[in-house]
Structures are given as C-alpha cells and as structure tokens.
Design a protein that fits this description.
Blueprint lengths: L2 E3 L5 E5 L2 H4 L12 H7 L16 H15 L3 E5 L2 H4 L9 H16 L3 E7 L5 H4 L8 H17 L5 E6 L1 H9 L11 H25 L4 E5 L4 E4 L4 H14 L1 H8 L5 H9 L10 H5 L5 E5 L3 E6 L8 E4 L14 H15 L4 E5 L16 H19 L4 E7 L18 E3 L6 E3 L1 H12 L1 E3 L1
Parallel strand pairs: 2-3, 2-12, 3-4, 4-5, 5-6, 6-8, 7-9, 8-11, 11-12
Antiparallel strand pairs: 1-15, 9-10, 13-14
Helix pairs in contact: 3-5, 7-9, 8-9, 10-11, 14-15
The structure holds beta-D-fucopyranose.
Length: 447
C-alpha cells in the first residue's frame, strides 16, 4: 500500500449542470432551452429521454446540499439555466428563477460550501436559437447582458465564476458533428459558434472586473490527450493536429490573443472561414484568474489518410473503458496538465470536471462502484504527480455529484457518486461517495 498525499491547500468539489439535474422544465416561469427542443425531437437522445424532470433538483436542492455537506467538499460547481432567469433570453429577469438560485446559494453558504457558478453549460434559451443562436454575433451581447445581471444579483456572495463550459462541445460537437443541441452539421457553423462563444467569454470577463472586483473568473474547456502511436513524424503531427482542435483553438485566443494558423488554413481548405472582427482578440485575451480543465479520456493517435478533418485515428491504449466506452488513460491526464502549464504558463488550474461513467444499480441499499473508485484513484495519482511537477493546480471537482441526464446518452449513462432513481428521484450514496468523502477529509488515499 502506498499513500497518495494531496496538498492540504487543494480545494475539493463536486459538479453538476442545470439542464442535467434541475428538472422542473415547465415550472417557475422557465422557457425552453435548445436542449428541451433537441431532446424532445425523436432520435436525438437515447431512449427518447429528456431533461423534463432530470434529478428534480429544483425541488430537492436542500437534500443535495446536505449530501455535499456530509461529503465535506469545499465547493459546489453548478450552472445557471439562462432561460430560467431570463425567460425571453434578453431583458426582464424572472423573480422565481432568481429566487431559486438565491436560495441554493444561501443553502450552500449556510453549510460552509463555496458556490462556483458556470454561466453557460449549453442550455441556450431556444428563443435566442430562433434568432440564429451562437452563429449570430448578437448572441454575444445577449450573453453579456445575462452575465452582468447574474454578477449583479449574485456577485456579492459568489466569488468563483466560469463563463463557458466546454466550448469545443458547444460549438463543434453541437454544430459540426451534430451530436448535441442544436444538432447542426456545418463546419462553418462550428467555426462561427466557437468564435462567438470565446467572444462572449471575453466580454463577460471584462465586465466582471467592474461588477465583482474581488471575484475570480475563468472558463472550462475540455481536453483529451492524444499520445503518438509511434515515434514517426506522421503520427506526431497527426496527434498535434487532433489536439489543436480542443487545445490551441480554444486556449491560444485567451492566452496569446491568436488563433492557430494551421487550423485556420485547414478549416479554409474545407470551406469554412474564421470571421474575426477588429478588436475581438483583445477582448478574448483578457487575463483570467483561473483555468478550468475537464478531463475524462485519452488515446493513442495515428496518422490516417481518411481519418476525418485532422487525418488522425484514435487507437485505445488497451481494452480498459468506462461504461460510456471512453478509454481510460490516467497518464494522459498528467501529460495534459503538464503540457498546458508548459504552453500557457502559471495560470491557476481547477480540474472543473473529472469522473467516470459506470452504470451500477442499487443492491440492498448499496452501490458497489469499485470501478469508479479505481478510476478516481488513478486520476488523482496523476494529479498529484502534476502538482509535484509544479503545475499550479488549486482545485479538483468531481463529475458528478449525482447521476443525471447525460445529454445525447440520456439517463442510462451514470456519472454520479450518488445514485439517482429517475422514477422516484431517490438518492443513494455509492461506495465512491464514501471513498471520496474520506479522501477529501484526509487529503490522501491508499493505492
Ligand atoms: C462533459 C460535460 C458534462 C458531463 C460530462 C460527462 O463533457 O461538461 O456536462 O456530461 O461530460
């Protein structure tokens, strides 16, 4: 047995997102988001699942905060549903929506848990989608107005903020690969949406400085790792191209004020142009206080002539996969973190998501999810090595507190450390909940 010791100063947390847990889709003055419309259209989500009821956290938030409190975490990362607080997308605030989040925040503070708010975890009000959604530049101003309203409402109590969750998913996965809402399949739409999301991020950061001067703000891009399959230059270059789509495309603009030329050209070869207006990159490259990283998986990468846009084929390292079929690659977590540090310097990093899908059910009141514990141990071991290597990691936030609506995969795929029965909404703490509680409390665990 070896003890893996994490720094006493490391913040621990658990995360969720509004559409994935709240339910109450038609209550409290909320209007539909793109995910309501997308999930209700046949064929988009497995088993026809929708987020109509989700975990019913809208009504059970006190119970959820109690689970967090007994878990002993420092922070809870949750997102605000834009269409709950501003049902028309722009303009008037909805008092009921504001009250819900105000109560949640108060409940957290009363239990000594620091709230961390994500402004945009993918649920754009449908009314704005009807006007062009993120493809329309005007949506960045609607986002700014929404962000400013939230800073004014909650900035007195909430000091940790994230603008956009996983801009790669919200742009390319949703508008080019068509997997997530709004389900488009146009590269040009993907490129436009990506740029507007980053512009929206920059605008919100600018105004945050005035409205919440004592707060900290950042964003939460997702990152996988591609390790060259062989030492051949072809494989090395293929991996670089593949990584560039998630890494440089979404990080260079923030940290360097540029977009990677290689990808601009590659997109152009495929008929898509990057439309940047003067001043955009100055706005996007506003200094941020914290960098969120969402990490789940990685693979080997090998050059393949017809391997999609980037001519790269992903080859799993071995047969180990989670129940969502994502290869397990904990070493990639270490590599991704040290690589980000080397490329972008000393910005404080939060792991804003890391976790595993295993679909265990409840047996005699217990959920035996040893596989999730193993996954977390491996990834926290990589994290601890990255900290030792000098990467300025300040927090680790597990995905997820609860089993929830896993987007296009519906309710079948379970990421929670707490099991949710989606008929009764009953919560059952899994073995991983207790393991995580002990790890959080001891700042260490045994491997
Ligand atoms: C991430 C999302 C999060 C969750 C996990 C499993 O891409 O940010 O909402 O669905 O994957």
């Amino acid at each position: 047995m070896t003890t893996i010791q994490l720094p006493e100063t490391l913040k621990w947390g658990a995360a969720t997102a509004s559409y994935q847990i709240e339910g109450a889709a038609h209550e409290g003055g909320r209007t539909p988001s793109i995910w309501d419309v997308f999930s209700h259209a046949p064929g988009n989500v497995k088993n026809g699942d929708t987020g109509d009821n989700a975990c019913n956290s809208y009504h059970k938030y006190k119970e959820d905060v109690n689970h967090l409190s007994e878990l002993g975490v420092d922070q809870y990362r949750f997102s605000i549903s834009w269409s709950r607080v501003i049902p028309q997308g722009r303009g008037e605030l909805n008092p009921e929506g504001i009250a819900y989040y105000r109560n949640l925040i108060q409940e957290l503070l009363d239990h000594g848990i620091e709230p961390m708010i994500t402004l945009y975890h993918w649920d754009l009000p449908q009314i704005l989608q009807d006007e062009g959604g993120w493809e329309a530049r005007e949506t960045t101003d609607a986002f700014l107005a929404y962000a400013e309203a939230m800073f004014k409402e909650f900035g007195g109590q909430v000091k940790k903020w994230l603008t956009i969750n996983e801009p790669w998913c919200a742009s390319f996965l949703s508008n080019y690969l068509g997997v997530h809402a709004p389900g488009k399949t146009s590269l040009q739409a993907g490129v436009d949406v990506a740029h507007h999301l980053m512009l929206a991020h920059g605008k919100a950061v600018q105004s945050f400085r005035e409205l919440v001067p004592d707060g900290e703000i950042g964003y939460a891009p997702n990152l996988g790792w591609l390790e060259p399959y062989s030492p051949s230059q072809e494989d090395i270059d293929a991996c670089k191209r593949g990584m560039m789509w998630q890494k440089e495309w979404f990080m260079d603009p923030v940290f360097k004020g540029t977009y990677p030329e290689t990808l601009i050209q590659l997109f152009a070869e495929h008929g898509a142009s990057l439309n940047v207006e003067e001043g955009d990159l100055e706005i996007i490259s506003q200094p941020i206080d914290l960098m969120g990283i969402n990490y789940y998986t990685g693979s080997l990468g090998r050059y393949k002539e017809d391997g999609g846009l980037f001519q790269v084929e992903e080859v799993p390292l071995d047969e180990r996969r989670t129940d969502i079929d994502w290869p397990i690659y904990a070493e990639g977590f270490y590599k991704a973190l040290t690589d980000i540090h080397q490329t972008y310097g000393d910005v404080p990093i939060y792991i804003t998501e890391n976790g595993a899908c295993y679909n265990h059910g409840v047996e005699d009141g217990r959920v035996y999810d040893q596989e999730r514990i193993d996954y977390l141990k491996q990834h926290l071991t990589s994290l601890s090595r990255a900290i030792e290597a000098g990467v300025p990691i300040v927090g680790y936030i597990v995905w997820s507190l609860l089993d929830n609506f896993e987007w296009a995969e519906g309710y079948e795929k379970r990421f929670g450390i707490i099991h949710v029965n989606f008929e009764t909404f009953e919560r059952t703490r899994k073995d991983s909940y207790y393991w995580y509680r002990d790890t959080v409390n001891n700042h260490s665990f045994e491997v």
